[in-house]
Specification:
Blueprint: H1 7-14, E1 20-21, H2 24-33, E2 37-42, H3 51-65, E3 69-74, H4 96-113, E4 124-127, H5 129-132, H6 137-143, H7 150-153, H8 157-164, H9 171-174, H10 176-191, E5 195-199, H11 203-217, E6 222-226, E7 239-240, E8 243-244, H12 254-262, H13 269-276, H14 281-288, H15 294-311, H16 313-328, E9 338-341, E10 345-347, H17 348-354, H18 361-369, E11 373-375, E12 378-379, E13 386-388, E14 394-398, E15 402-408
Parallel strand pairs: 2-3, 2-5, 3-4, 5-6, 9-15
Antiparallel strand pairs: 1-6, 7-8, 10-13, 11-12, 11-14, 14-15
Helix pairs in contact: 10-11, 12-15, 12-16, 13-14, 13-15, 15-16
């Protein structure tokens, strides 16, 4: 069904978010007549989310834009277990202090995308440790575990793929899908949550939660999943050749975030505008039809809109200005990452590592050997080269896209 009556499903459909719906008619009718609280769960495995999580954040943003209530569920409890979906190995387990620190750091990202508060459509953030940490094992197995069969759990992709690859799947991880299903039950009870949203890899977990709510409470719950978001070249969204594209500016500068979007493949421009910006659909249709050099202007508009959403208008303007100065005018833009150097000299290897352009000195050596390392646009060919730090900024580059400044520490 695509002739939706509710603003929610029309918006989701028009912008390309819908992959699977558990009950399209039922959800459409519900969303057309009342406010629907819906949630997405995020495990707190790092101090920041990244672009790979962004489509799920945007789902909550669209939910709020359509007049419904977003619930951000931070996995303070489930992070201790680890979601096996899409993983080849056991996740490193964190303690409570590490998880809570990550949740506090992650919250700042959501505040850019959602309006939090106490109103009927204001977003709320809750921690599933509030109910999972207090569960008693035997009562939980008796009351909840009896609704799950091992036979069925073995058919879910998150389990099946690990077993097919002969990768170990711990009993701890095997319980993840039960805990996630229980989250939906608790959210239904505590916050009248009717909808769970997630990526296509979460379909089995979402269906489990819907069935658990029906069997135990007789609740009518719904699920919506997005298609797997990949780039035109088939690579995973949220990754670059240099690693994750983090949302927190302390993990990735707004300039580098802007550059990620600016370097979008021509074939992805329209799709990414629909998914990751608020640009009007008709304007997107015009921009994605541009060809040749004009498509680069569309990419800048995409980069501006995505960066403004994640980091604010000023950060987007500064990033765009820096890019123009650096690439179009040959100057050193003011928004480039800066490494302050206390000594009179620094080795090229240390400079590349300390500014974050290379993960190790070995990688820096390979960058130099390949001719990708430059000082003030002049190639550096000697891995043992030393850089003298003067009173004026020195431009350091790694490859075509990474540029920064070396500056004498005050």
């Amino acid at each position: 069904m695509t002739n939706y009556q509710s603003a929610l499903l029309r918006l989701m459909n028009d912008r390309g978010y819908i992959h699977q719906l558990t009950d399209a008619d039922g959800l459409d009718q519900l969303a057309a007549k009342t406010i629907v609280p819906g949630y997405v769960g995020f495990d707190a495995t790092a101090t920041s989310l990244h672009v790979g999580n962004l489509v799920q954040i945007m789902l909550l943003r669209r939910l709020q834009q359509a007049g419904h209530k977003p619930i951000v569920v931070m996995g303070g409890g489930t992070t201790k277990v680890g979601d096996p979906s899409g993983k080849d190995e056991v996740r490193k387990l964190l303690d409570d202090d590490g998880i809570n620190a990550n949740i506090a750091s992650i919250r700042s990202s959501f505040e850019r995308f959602l309006t939090f508060g106490n109103g009927p459509t204001d977003a709320i953030m809750i921690n599933n440790a509030d109910w999972l940490d207090s569960l008693e094992y035997i009562p939980f197995l008796r009351d909840v575990g009896r609704h799950f069969t091992i036979n069925r759990m073995l058919t879910f992709d998150s389990v099946k793929l690990r077993l097919d690859r002969e990768q170990p799947l711990t009993f701890l991880e095997f319980n993840y899908m039960i805990l996630q299903a229980y989250d939906f039950l608790e959210l239904s009870r505590q916050h009248a949550c009717r909808l769970q949203l997630g990526g296509s890899d979460q379909w089995g977990n979402i269906v489990n939660g819907i069935e658990l709510g029906r069997r135990i409470d007789g609740a009518q719950l719904f699920g919506l999943t997005t298609p797997l978001i990949t780039k035109a070249d088939g690579s995973k969204m949220g990754k670059s050749v240099d690693g994750a594209i983090w949302l927190n500016k302390d993990r990735l500068s707004p300039y580098d975030y802007w550059q990620f979007w600016r370097n979008t493949d021509d074939r992805d421009v329209g799709r990414f505008m629909r998914l990751f910006t608020d640009i009007d659909i008709d304007e997107i249709a015009r921009l994605e039809s541009l060809e040749g050099a004009e498509i680069n202007e569309a990419k800048k508009i995409l980069a501006d809109a995505a960066t403004a959403m994640a980091h604010g208008d000023d950060a987007a303007k500064n990033a765009a200005s820096t890019a123009q100065k650096t690439f179009e005018q040959g100057q050193s833009g003011g928004d480039l990452p800066v490494l302050e150097v206390a000594e009179e000299q620094i080795s090229m290897l240390n400079a590349l590592v300390d500014i974050g352009f290379c993960a190790s000195k070995g990688e820096a050596k390979r960058m130099i050997a390949g001719g990708g390392a430059r000082i003030d646009d002049e190639p550096v060919k000697d891995a043992g080269a030393m850089i003298s730090i003067a009173d004026t900024d020195i431009k350091i580059s790694a490859g075509k896209k990474k540029h920064g400044l070396l500056r004498r520490a005050a």
